[in-house]
Amino acid sequence: MLAKSARLTESGDFARATKSGIRYSSTNFVGYLYVTQLNQPARAGLILSKTIGSSVARHRLARKIRHCIFDNYASLPNGSLLVIRGLNNSIEADCKSEIATVLAHLIRKTKECAVTQ
RNA sequence: AGAGUCGCCCGGAUCACCGCGUCAUAGAAAUAUGCCGAGGAAAGUCCGGACUCCAAAGAGCAAAGUGGUGGGUAACGCCCACCCGGAGCAAUCCGCGGGAUUAGUGCAACAGAAAGCAAACCGCCAACGAAAGUUGGUAAGGGUGAAACGGCGGUGUAAGAGACCACCAGUAAUUGCAGCAAUGCAGUUAGCUAUGUAAACCCCACUUGGAGCAAGACCAUGCAGUUGGCGCUUGAGAGCUGCUCGCUCGAGUCAACGGGUAGGUUGCUUGAAUCUGUAAGUAAUUACAGAUCUAGAUGGAUGGUGAUCCCUCGCAAGAGGACAGGAUCCGGCUUAUAGGGCGACUCUUCUU
RNA sequence: GGCCCCGUCGUCUAGCGGCCUAGGACUCUGGCUUCUCAAGCCAGCUACGCGGGUUCGAAUCCCGUCGGGGCUA
Question: For residue A43, which nucleotide's C1' is closest to its Cα?
Fold first, then answer.
């Protein structure tokens, strides 16, 4: 679970992460990561549309994803904005391993970009 | 034992560790400790309210809704009791259940002579005629249809007919009794008696001002105007549903193009509240007394791991746990719902 | 939060309570025509979202549901 300081709360931040950030997609999820220069703790948000299922299903999925993000929270760089988008069949997904691989790929890509710059 | 009807309730339980949200306490802060943390439908948004704003919530029409009677309620289109009609052997269930005989209009396809007040296709009878048929009487019989001018039997007659009689059905007026009432029961009189449809228009009675917590209040942030219309007390425009009246505010306002902001606090949870008991009432419900505090999030808090028990499936290993997630709050209705429990009643059969 | 509209063959649509066993166009299937295909002609298949009610009779009227779409703050 994520503390209140570790959540994305503004639509501008969502737009920045999804449009300017690095993207990696697996079979059931799409991850976006954007690293700002601000010295803040990393923040994360979720996008789950109605096509995933009922209200109960969406809430359950959101809780599972948040839990998985918490397990990998320490590896995120300072000041980064993370957005996870759930796709239609993501209810049956194995959240734990899939989210972990998504995050690992995103973090590796950002480091590569920083090195090349 | 079998078949069935109705009502109410539960909606997996406990523990440990790591995490999340509000609040309280401590602390300069980081944080620590403690308490609490989704539902019977939170859903659909089909009704009714509380609350807030529209100056106040005024009148009439329009429009919409409701529709047996009495009661309950803050209120209702909800609930209870009763009446009437229908279904069922019964327990019980279903009903938008006012007015079509007096305010009026419309509709009733096809068939049929005829579908709403006027008539007569076949028939029956009489007269005329050689016959075909014509004229008149009649509505018992035939056939049509969802529905055909009360039903059956007799008297009567040329043939027939409520023309007359007995019994029955129904209508209106009226009297008595029972009931608060809807209505029921019993009688008298009348004309002898035409149907359905108002979930067709309509009439009658009653109800309804409008918007909604994105209501409303406060604080921040930010910008740039231009063109045209109507006005400045002889009144533009506004008071957010259609019209009229009335009332009030009133010096700017309306339209087009362009530009800017869309982030915090509050409203926010103690309430027609919940539980227990007593009393009144057939009941819905109400009154009184005592106890309790029971989510308040805002990109939106309930997840992960492990253990034991319960239930279902399976020989076992093992797999699974209905419908479904608060968003201002209450009272209902409707819809979804694995499985289980309790109570009351009816019918049939058997045993004692 | 509030308000409104629509569900008819595979698709797009008509439909005055009885003429509806629901019409039209395209599609599909079969046949005719042609050396073959296309076009043309003939025939056929296929629908009132679901459940109740009113009515003699409902796709149509009423109620409740399910699904889809739109407007508005």
Answer: B299
State whether the beta carbon of A2 lies below 7 angstroms from any atom of strand B.
yes
Q: How far apart are the first and last CA of chain A?
A: 34
**Nucleotide with the nearest C1' to A62 CA:** B303
CA A25 – CA A32 distance, rounded (Å): 9
What is the tally of structural domains in chain A? 1
Q: What was the ipTM of the complex prediction?
A: 0.78
- Domain around A96: 4-116
Q: C-alpha distances in angstroms, A68 versus A1, A15, A21, A86?
A: 8, 23, 21, 14
Of A55, A46, A56, residue with least CA distance to A87:
A46
Token code pair at residue A9: 């709360």
**Predicted model pTM:** 0.78
The DSSP symbol for A88 reads T
